[in-house]
What does this fold into?
Amino acid sequence: MRHWLWYPFLLVLLAGCALRGKDTSEPPAPLTSIEQQVRLETVWERRFGSGHDGQFVHLVPAFAGERLFLADRKGRVFALESETGKPLWEVNTRARISAAVEAGEGLVLLGTSDGEVLALEIQDGAERWRVRVPSEVLAVPRIERGMVVVQTADGTLTGLEAASGERRWVFDRTMPALTLRGSSTPAVAGGAVLAGFANGRLALLGVEQGRLAWELAVAEPRGRSELERMVDLDADPLIDGVTAYAVSYQGQVVAVDMRSGQVDWRRDMSAYAGLGLDANQLYVTDDLSQVWALNRRNGASLWKQDALRLRDLTAPQPFGELVVVGDFEGHLHLLSRFDGDLLGRLRTDSRGIASLRVVGSHLYVLGKGGLLTVLHAPAADR
It folds into this structure.
C-alpha cells in the first residue's frame, strides 16, 4: 500500500475510476496459521493520547538517558521512564503535530502541519521556542552539535540554532510535479546531515553551515507519465560508520562511502517504508511489503520473505536473532534473521503499527492509535 499522493485532482481521478468499475487491485495477503516458535513477553503497555488520529503523520518515540518521549497528533507531548512507563510530565502544545519526536541537547523537538518547529525543555516540557519553516513538516527534526535540522514537504532543509531557533542556513531542491506523501527523516552523525529528496537524490551537508559535501542520484526519473517518473527517497537513510545506505521508490538501494560520496554498490529496488541494519545485513521492506535481507558488503540477496505481501509493513527492525515488522492491522511479524522464516506473530494496536525501536533488550512498538507496547525476548539477551 502506497502513501497517499499529494495532489487532490489525482485522488478525485482515482476515486472516480473506482466508482465506475470494480476494484481489481491485489488485496493484502491473508494471514495463515504459523507455528509460534518465538514468543515475546510484554514488559508494560500504555496508550498515549490520540496517536495519529487517522492522519498521515510521522510520530516515533525518542529516548534520552532513561527517559522516553512521545507525542500525539492533537499536540500532547509525554515524558516517562523508559523502563517502567512511569509518567514524568505531560504538556499540550495545542499544535497539529505532524512529525515527532526528537530528544537531545536538553530539548524535545516537534514539527507541525502548519509549518512550525517547536522546542520544549527536556526536563519539564516548557516551551523554549517556536519558529516558522517553509512548509509542513513530515520528517522528524534532528539535532546535532547545537543545530536543529528540519526537512519540510517542499524539499527544503533548514538549519536552526538549537538555543534560540534562529535560522542559520537553508538548502533546497526542486520538487517533481508529483511525489509520494511524506519526507524521509535526515540522518545526522559526526557533524554531518544526510538527506534524501523527492527528486531521487541523496545529499551530505555540514550541519553547522549547511555546506554541500556531495550529492548523488539514487534513482533517475524514467517513463512517460508523472506517476512512472516518481523516484522519492521517502525511506529514512542510515549512517553506519563511514557508510551510508539509502533506497528510493522505483529506483535503487545504494551503499555510499560517506567520505567521498562514491557508491560502493547499488542494485534495483523500490521501497519507501524503510531500512534496517545489523552487523552483517541490510534489511529492506519493498513497495510490495516483501522483506529482503541483503549482504552489507555487496548488496547480494540473502533471503526474501513475501508471505506478507501488500500488508503495508513498517521498516524492518533487527531484534536479537529476529527481524520484526509491523502491519496495517497491528500485527507484529517475527522473522528469522538467518533465513527470513516466520517464527511468530502477535497483535498490539489494532489501528496499525507506526514504528518499531529497539533500546537495549526491549522492543518499543508504537501503534497509530497511540498504544505503546514494550516487549522483551530472551533471544535479544544472547
